[in-house]
Each structure stands twice: as structure tokens, then as C-alpha cells.
Write a structure and sequence with these properties.
Layout (H helix, E strand, L loop, with lengths): L11 E4 L4 E4 L12 E12 L2 E13 L7 E3 L1 H10 L4 H19 L16 H7 L6 H4 L1
Antiparallel strand pairs: 1-2, 2-3, 3-4, 4-5
């Protein structure tokens, strides 16, 4: 059972070529309920047919209402770079991936004022995201 008492579990969608993991947390309540959380990630082959997802600190929050987004945890990203938890090449990739994701999915530079997201949720996951939620109780 989730933190909200729901029998639903978060589903995560990884878009490997964009370096992101996207989820719609079932723990979001009130003003965030129905919102999306995007993690900038790195993938590692952990074994045969097994990938490990590593969070690279920078996150994007897309609330359910309105056309806005928030970039989060830049302080954690800076701390990781300063402490050597990530190297400069990884930091450069994360910053570029963040900007590319925002430009591709959340900003429409040709529309003023913006009337809709250019591609959010991303078309790459839309069909999966629209499937009914899994029932955790049935899986056990």
C-alpha cells in the first residue's frame, strides 16, 4: 500500500536517450496531485538484462494545473560536483539534458503566450502513461 493509503504504485518511465526518468507519484496530494516528477538520470548496465538507474540530482516538477514547471535540487547537484560525486563531464551532460528536455517538452518558443505543452507528457511514454494503474494488491 502506498503512503497515501492507495493500492497503486508509482510507475516510472525512462527515456534513455534523453537521460530522464518520469513518474506521476501517487504520493502527491492536494495542489500536486496528478503532477509529474522528472529525474535526470544515468543508466548503468548492472548485469545481463538488468539496468541500474542513478539519480543525477537535478529534478523537474510539473504541477497538474497551469503551464509551469520548476527545476529543483540544483544545490544538491552543485554539492555533488563540489564533493566529487559526479565529474565535470557528467555535470555538463546533465545540464544539457535538462535544457534539452525543457526545450523539447515544456517550452514552445514559437507560441506567445503559450497555450499548451509542446510535448508533455512526452509522446514516447503517453500510451503507457494512459494505461490503467496497476493494483498492488493483485500483484502479491
Amino acid at each position: 500500500m502506498s503512503a497515501t493509503g492507495s493500492d497503486q504504485a508509482d510507475r516510472c518511465f525512462v527515456i534513455a536517450d534523453e537521460g530522464v526518468q518520469i513518474r506521476k507519484p501517487v504520493t502527491f496530494v492536494d495542489a500536486l496531485e496528478g503532477g509529474w516528477y522528472i529525474d535526470l538520470i544515468d543508466l548503468e548496465e548492472a548485469g545481463p538484462k538488468e539496468l541500474a538507474v542513478h539519480d543525477l540530482y537535478v529534478d523537474i516538477l510539473v504541477p497538474p494545473l497551469g503551464r509551469r514547471y520548476e527545476v529543483l535540487d540544483l544545490d544538491e547537484f552543485a554539492d555533488a560536483l563540489e564533493d566529487g560525486a559526479i565529474d565535470a563531464a557528467t555535470a555538463v551532460r546533465v545540464l544539457r539534458d535538462t535544457q534539452r528536455f525543457i526545450d523539447k517538452h515544456l517550452r514552445n518558443l514559437n507560441q506567445d503566450p503559450p497555450g499548451s505543452w509542446p510535448d508533455f507528457p512526452p509522446a514516447a511514454i503517453l500510451g503507457l502513461a494512459e494505461l490503467p494503474p496497476f493494483d498492488v494488491a493483485q500483484r502479491t
